[in-house]
Every structure is written in C-alpha cells, then in structure tokens.
Amino acid sequence: METLTLKLQGMSCAACAKRIETVIQSVPGVLECSVNFGLEQASVRYKPQTAPLETIQKAVAKAGYRAYLEEQDDTESDRAATLSLKRRLIFGGVVSLILVFGGLPMMTGLSLSWVPPWLHNPWLQLVLTTPVLFWVGQSFFTGAWKALKHGSSDMNTLVALGTSAAYFYSVIATVFPQFFRTQGLAPDVYYEAAAVVITLVLLGRLLERRARGQTSAALRQLMGLQAKTARVVREGREEDIPIEAVEIGDIIVVRPGEKIPVDGRIIEGSSLVDEAMVTGESVPVTKEVGDEVIGATLNKTGSFQFEATRVGKETVLAQIVQLVRQAQASKAPIQRLADRVVGIFVPIVLAIALLTFTIWWFLTGNLTLATISTVGVLTIACPCALGLATPTSVMVGTGKGAENGILIKGADSLELAHKIQAIILDKTGTLTEGKPTVTDFVAVRGTENSNEIKLLKLAATVENRSEHPLAEAVINYAQKQGIELPLPSPEGFGAIAGSGVQGNVSDRWIQIGTQQWLEGLGIAMDGTTRSRVSLLNCQKTWQEAGKTVIWLAVDGEIEGLFAIADTLKSSSAQAVKTLQRMGLEVAMLTGDNQGVADAIAREVGIRRVFAQVRPDGKAAIVQRLQQEGKIVGMVGDGINDAPALAQADVGIAIGTGTDVAIAASDITLISGDLQGIIAAIQLSRATMGNIRSNLFFAFIYNIAGIPIAAGILYPILGWLLNPAIAGAAMAFSSVSVVLNALRLRNFKPKLFS
Ligand SMILES: Nc1ncnc2c1ncn2[C@@H]1O[C@H](COP(=O)(O)OP(=O)(O)OP(=O)(O)O)[C@@H](O)[C@H]1O
Ligand SMILES: [Cu+]
Ligand SMILES: [Mg+2]
User: Fold this and answer.
1) Residue 213: pLDDT band with limits 50, 70, 90
2) Rounded CA separation 712/342 (Å)
3) What are the protein's GO molecular function terms (predicted)?
4) Which of 45, 458, 507, 515 is the most buried (most CB within 10 A)?
5) Of 498, 430, 489, 431, residue with least CA distance to 460
6) For residues 245 and 311, what is the distance between their CA atoms, to the nearest angstrom?
7) Predicted TM-score of the model (pTM)
C-alpha cells in the first residue's frame, strides 16, 4: 500500500475533480483517491503491484486530463498556461469593451451621439465575437465536451451552453433578420453577452490561479527558509558543501548570524538560536552542548559545532512541509457536502433552463424572451465558486497554522477543533516541561563504600536505553555525581510502559519504576537500614510536594528511591484558565501517582484528575469522556499517550515529544506551548466561519439570480436579467470567494483572552 500525490492538469471546476476521483477510484488496485481542485492534485492510496502508475495516468488521460508526478517539474507548463490565459483574457476584454461601448445606446435607450453607430453593426460584432467564443472560451467547450463524453455535465456545460445560445441566436438574427421581422420581432443581437460572460468567467479563473499561488506562499516561504550550503569539517578541514550532500554524522560549523543547515546536536560551543520560523516561539533559545538544533533556524550570537542527526526528508522542516502539503490536499467533510451539491446542481439547472425556455416559448411565442431568460439562467447558475469555497479556506487556514507553529494534518481536524468540548492534558511533558531533575536520592544501605555511586551507575545504565523523560533525569543526576559516560549496554533491556524499566547490568538484575509495579512483582518494599514505613513516608512527603517517586530494585531487593521534580511550563496555568473560560472542560491524565497528580492539578487549576493510568487505560479515559457525549481533544507528548491521541476526536501532540505521539495525532504544536491549543481552536473557528461565508457568497448569486434570470419578475416588473450581467454576477461570486478566503490571512491568535 502506498500513497502518492499526482499533479493534475485540465480541470476547470469541482465537477472535473469529482470525475477524476471516480476515474482513479475505478482503477483496480486503487483503494482511495481524493482530488483537490484548488491545488490541482490527487492523493491516491494504491497497491503499486496491481495498479501501476501508468495505468492510473492512462485512465486519467482517457478522461481528458493529465496526471503527472510532482517531480516532473510543473512550474514551466504552469507559467505557460497562465500566459496563454492572460493573452486570451486581454483579447476578450478588449472585444467586450468595444461591444459594450457600441451597445450603450441600445442598452440604455439613450441617443448617445458620441458612440459611432457603425460600432453597433451586427456583422462587425459577429466578426469580433467569433474568436472570443471559440478561442478565448475554448476551454469551456472542450470541458463541456469532455463532460458530455462521460454523460455528465459541469460548469463548463453551463457556460458553453449559455454563451453559444446567445451567440447562435445573434448569428441567425444577423444573417436572416427577415425571419425575425416576419414574426414581428426585432432582430436584436446579444454578442456582447456572450463575449462578456466568457471574459469574466475566464477572469475568475485567472484570479483563482493567483489565489492558489498566494495560498501556497506559506509553504514556499517555509521551504525557502532552508540554507543552501553547510560548512562541514571533513578530514580536519572546513569546507562548504551543498546541503543535499550533508550526511548524518557530519560535523557542521555554524557562525553567528548564519542559518543552521540541518538538524543535529551541539557538540561544541553555545549560542542563542531564533527558532521562530519553526516553532513560532519568538524568544531566542539558549543552546548548549548536547542540545538539539533544528535545520533552517537562525543562529544569533555564538558559534558552535554540531553533529548532523537528520538530513534531507528526515529534517523537522521537511516533515513540516510534507505535513502541511498533506493537510492542504485533504478534504474537509464540509467540502464533500459541497462536492455532492455541485454534482446534483448542474442537472437541476439544466432542467430549469429547459423549463424556462419552453414555458416562455409556449406562453408568449416570443423567441427572444425565451432565449434571453434561458441564457441568463445558464450563466448565473454556474457553481464554480462553490467548488472554490472550501479548499481556498483550508489552504489559507493550514498555512496560517504552520506560520503559528501549529501543524494540522488534515482538513477534518481543522474543522473539528473548534467543536472540542473537553480537553484532556497529559501531565509529564505536556503541562510540565518534561525536563525533570532528580532532587533527592536515598540509598537504602547508606552511602558507605561508595554504595550510592554504584547504585546510580546501575540505574543510569538501564535508563540509558529508555526514551522516558524520567530516564534522562536519572542519567543527568548520575552524571552530576561523577558517573562517566558512555555507559555500557544493559542486557535483556525491557521497558514496561506506565511502570518502569528493567535490564541486566554486570550480572545484576535492575528494575526501576513505580511502587505498584515492583510490589506487584512480589518485591518487599523494605530495606536493610531504613524501615519500610519510613521509605513509604519518604515517598508520601515527596509526592505531596508534586514530585514523582521511582524505586530502584537490584536483584529483587529495594536499594534506592529517587524523587524527581519537573517544573510546570510557564504558559500552562494561563492556558488552562483560558480554555476553561472558553467553556471547555479541562482534565488531567497521567501515568504518575495520584498524590503528585493532585498537587500539579491544584497548581494549574484543573479539577478533574485521572492518575496512575496505564497507556492503554489512557485511551479508555478518552472514550469515557466521549461516551459522556463530548467531543474530546487530547494533548500529549509521550509514547504512553499515543493510543489516547489516536482515540481522541482531535489528538494534539507536543512537537517536542516523541515521534510516536506526533504520528498518532491530528495536530502538532511545534513549540510545545499549550497556548497553541487555544490558537488551534481559534484558527479552526475562523476557518469554518470563513468556509461558511464562502459557501454563502458562492450560493447567494445562484439562488437569488436563477428565478430573476428565469423571468419571474418579468410579468410583474418587466425585469429580465441581461445575460451579460448574469455573467458578471457569476464571475463576481468566484472573486468574492477567493478574496474572502484570503481575508483569513489576517488571522492572529488571541491569547490571554
Ligand atoms: N523509564 C522509566 N524509569 C523510571 N520510572 C518509569 C519509567 N517509565 C515509567 N516509569 C514509572 O511509571 C510511571 C508512569 O509512567 P507513564 O509514562 O505512564 O506516565 P508519566 O510519564 O509519569 O506521566 P504522563 O502520563 O503525565 O506523561 C512514571 O511516573 C514512573 O514512576
Ligand atoms: Cu462558473
Ligand atoms: Mg507525558
């Protein structure tokens, strides 16, 4: 099973997108396909063995479109397409202006002496309009034809039918004016209607193209952040090499003011680094030996050397770009609704148009009236703006998120986030910094004969293999007490999620973890020199102070006790307060002991606490809240949070957390600042509001325009919609949708609200 992104060419509206979707889906071996009209791409989940790429491409080509891989550089053909579009537009625009100008006296009913009468000559108009229809408007006819071949219809059908009806009616009136006169009709022509509609719809498409370019600007900006070269130390010499040539393990030198080329860990020197472009965090961060640096961030003050740990597609930046791409190409559920509406809308409009024509023709016998109203209905009903409404907002919204350090994986989570009613926060690494430090260590047998150091070394050796934040605390503490790195590898290492770790070091069986776990293994919780009671008392006091307590057992006997403290993130309490004020229920969920959990919860103002929950239990807690009928957001960082993140309606991972958590989540907060949750909810709300107003703009013209165009007001007020105005209204609806979506670019999260 593989997922593939194909660029598409030749789509003119949402109905085309739907057709390509159907075509690709019908290829055997394809499991899923979603086409994004705005981005002109398809994401396909398929089995490469049964459905080779060529088969998919052939199927798309047969339907009259082109599908190609992104790498087959598309900027060139894209630019050519834009240029050709512009040329056609200029021609169409000039002709439309001439026609409208020449038609002014007729349209306004005034005698305007400054309009030369020959401009209104129908033969001249015929000559001018013909290329507009068939060259400028070529794509509408080929599009309509494509649709017809599949027995379907789309917005091209509407434009093609509407404009050619106006055109051919006018041609007959030009060539055989007698025919009309004998029926008592004036041989009026509507060339300008045809030309204006074609030109305006095409203008809408050009603006669309522009908007698409602008919405992906956020992405291009992100990619543009990358440094082009890196200064690596190879064979003792510094040399500049292209960033693509950097390999994992390379030593890279960074000077003040330079961009950090790839991800890595500092091995010498220290500096302040501005990570705003990736994390959204504006305050520069101090980086010292051992700290991770992210590619594309800016080194401010010092100079340092670091070892490359991730290059190419693995870097944080590359992954962010990849994620945003995916999100922009994904479909919000509300979009599926819009697609379905387009699918049934066109046939209905065609039916209304037919009905309009027959009714007027029968009632009045007036062919002109019947034709004008039919042309009007066909043009004003075009649902092209409807196809634009959701994707444009989603694109701007996800791009905006990325700018603020919020990575949104799919349009569905962007849509759902503002509906979250209950939010569950993990404790360690989410509410707290996740950089715990050992504050106390008690060796049961006392400190004689460097017993303490021996124990610390055993503990650090086993913890060295754990990814848990607590492990790091133990190792750091051991180091501070003089234990030297690197540590040997433990044998038979095992991590028991939610309990602790174990392993064999120099033939001694080491276990470090919770009291419950060790007790459950039948280990007596009393030592030789200190009584069981006092050890447990020790634990109790520490826990009441909000410290995590872990026990160390050697060969099945308790030998030591660690107290580990973790500071709250500075933003945690404020974020919790804001969330509560926004009407959300905030709960805390932790694998840690109840006493510690309560102490921390009290500090940040959370009332509902679930403590001592094992990893699988965390998902069950999420489920429990869901069963209370709530839409649940879960925020976490660790491996132990992954199942809960996946279970939640919206899983939010802390970007500084583990890869597993990030993979299981829908949204990632890169900086780890919990205010990001609030920003994400606000962004979701703003985007959905934007989509709704887009749908309104897309629909209002059609809904209001169709009856007027059909001539409903004609018997009462004598009003009939001029087809040219219908065309303008339609083009305007596309334009207003795009402009409205771009308004979202002004989004700024309001924190501390
Ligand atoms: N590597 C480890 N070393 C020592 N103790 C551990 C280790 N892993 C887990 N434990 C023990 O198991 C407990 C539960 O761990 P778990 O990872 O489920 O939650 P947590 O990290 O404490 O908190 P949270 O769920 O808020 O992130 C820890 O509090 C600790 O006592
Ligand atoms: Cu349209
Ligand atoms: Mg955690």
Assistant:
1) low
2) 24
3) ATP binding; ATP hydrolysis activity; copper ion binding; P-type divalent copper transporter activity; P-type monovalent copper transporter activity
4) 458
5) 489
6) 9
7) 0.67
- Asked if 694 and 38 count as a contact pair (C-beta separation under 8 A), the reply is no
pLDDT at 438 over 90: yes
Determine which residue's CA is closest to atom 27 belonging to ligand 1: 428
Higher pLDDT, 367 or 277: 367
**456, 640, 645, best to mutate for ligand 1 pocket (most atoms within 8 Å of CB):** 640
The closest residue, in CA terms, to atom 10 on ligand 1 is 500
| Residue 639 in tokens | 């491996």
Percent of the chain with pLDDT over 90: 19
SS3 assignment, position 525? coil
* pLDDT at residue 588, as a whole number: 95
User: Rounded distance, CA 708 to CA 720, Å?
Assistant: 7
Q: Which residues are catalytically annotated?
A: 426
Give the residue-averaged pLDDT of 398-419.
86
Pocket test for ligand 1, best of 432, 433, 464, 468 (most atoms within 8 A of CB): 468
From the CA of 463, give the closest atom in ligand 1: 1
- pLDDT tens, position by position, 47-78: 878 777 888 888 888 888 888 876 544 556 66
Question: CA 243, CA 262: separation in Å to the nearest integer?
Answer: 8
Q: For residues 432 and 639, which has the higher predicted lDDT (pLDDT)?
A: 432
Query: Would you tell me the crossing angle of helices 367-380 and 333-364 to the nearest 10 degrees?
Result: 180
Mean pLDDT score of the chain: 82
User: What is the chain's length?
Assistant: 753
Does the structure show a pLDDT above 60 at 529?
no
**Ligand 1, residues at Cβ distance < 6 Å:** 426-429, 463, 466, 468, 470-471, 498-501, 512-514, 548, 550, 590-592, 615, 638, 640
Of all atoms in ligand 1, which is nearest to the CA of residue 636? 27
Q: Which residues surround ligand 2, an ion (CB under 5 A)?
A: 155, 382, 384
Where does the pLDDT of residue 679 fall: very low under 50, low under 70, confident under 90, or very high at 90 and above? very high
Q: Which residue from 672, 635, 745 is spatially nearest to 294, judged by alpha carbons?
A: 672
Q: Hey, whose CA ends up nearest to atom 28 of ligand 1?
A: 592
pLDDT value of residue 577: 93
DSSP state string for 674-731: THHHHHHHHHHHHHHHHHHHHHHHHHHHHHHHHHHHHTTTHHHH-----HHHHHHHHH
At 522, the pLDDT band (50, 70, 90 cuts) reads: confident
Ligand 3 centroid – CA 609 distance (Å): 14
**Pairing of the two strands 632-636 and 298-299:** unpaired
Distance 706 CA to ligand 2 centre (A): 14
CB atoms within 10 A of CB 281: 16
